[in-house]
């Protein structure tokens, strides 16, 4: 993974051991059966995480990694359960001003079997950040919304159009719940696609991202569940991990939820 170190951009600079330890502590505390990851480096870094977790008692037999158009930040899923199907969507694009652009991190689709013999799909996304180099698109709002629209349209093709009605969209949306970005995952016309799964930490706080430079806390990560998926979410809500020191490993906080079978 490339990193900024001492205000210099260092290609392939590894995450410090102290940060790796903090990330593992968060994962080990919740110990999910399926772990969706964003901003993962090359496959070797994912394998390092999988091996380190196994040495501490959390074994993920199945590993899926997506190399999208972004050469640095990738998507991944680690799972205790065998996937029924894995689809790597790297061809998603959208109109942007006078040209077309690709969804930078792509979208990772993983299907799992449920206890009733049915299947649910997990779609992992990491949408465009608010950084922009285009003055016509402040905070990349247009680009991020159109990335969401491209992902949303593909999700519909891979679910409702195929008769699949149980699915989750998970990841870093880089926008707030009422934004045009998130609304793309709620409806398309009269079609209800899903709802944001509410989540909170042990103090009832709902933020998932801390922007240190601005001293700003915001909710940008989580799950959108389809109408048929929502009843399978235990208590209809998720949990945000708030271990002491959890921000030492990432400026995002982990969100998890239990599925009832």
From TrEMBL:
Source species, domain of life: Bacteria
SUPFAM superfamilies, alphabetized: DNase I-like (SSF56219)
Gene Ontology MF: a single term: catalytic activity
Coiled coil: none
All residue ranges annotated as the Endonuclease/exonuclease/phosphatase domain in the record: 20-252
Protein name: Endonuclease/exonuclease/phosphatase domain-containing protein
């Amino acid at each position: 993974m490339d990193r900024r170190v001492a205000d210099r951009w260092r290609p392939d600079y590894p995450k410090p051991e102290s940060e790796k330890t903090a990330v593992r502590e968060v994962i080990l505390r919740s110990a999910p059966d399926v772990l969706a990851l964003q901003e993962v480096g090359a496959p070797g870094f994912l394998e390092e995480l999988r091996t380190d977790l196994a040495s501490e008692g959390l074994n993920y037999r199945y590993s899926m990694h997506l190399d999208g158009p972004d050469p640095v930040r990738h998507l991944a899923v680690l799972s205790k359960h065998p996937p029924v199907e894995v689809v790597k969507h790297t061809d998603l694009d959208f109109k942007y001003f006078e040209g077309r652009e690709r969804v930078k991190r792509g979208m990772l689709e993983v299907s799992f079997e449920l206890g009733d013999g049915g299947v649910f799909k997990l779609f992992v996304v990491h949408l465009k950040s608010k950084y922009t180099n285009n003055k016509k698109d402040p905070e990349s709002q247009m680009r991020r919304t159109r990335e969401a629209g491209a992902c949303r349209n593909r999700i519909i093709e891979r679910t409702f159009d195929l008769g699949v009605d149980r699915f989750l969209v998970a990841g870093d949306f880089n926008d707030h719940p009422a934004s045009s970005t998130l609304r793309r995952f709620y409806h398309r016309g009269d079609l209800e696609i899903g709802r944001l799964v509410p989540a909170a930490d042990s103090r009832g706080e709902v933020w998932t991202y801390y922007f240190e430079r601005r001293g700003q806390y915001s909710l940008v990560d989580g799950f959108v569940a389809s109408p048929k998926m929502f009843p399978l979410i235990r208590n209809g809500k998720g949990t945000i991990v708030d271990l002491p020191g959890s921000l030492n490993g990432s400026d995002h906080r982990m969100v998890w939820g239990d599925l009832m079978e």
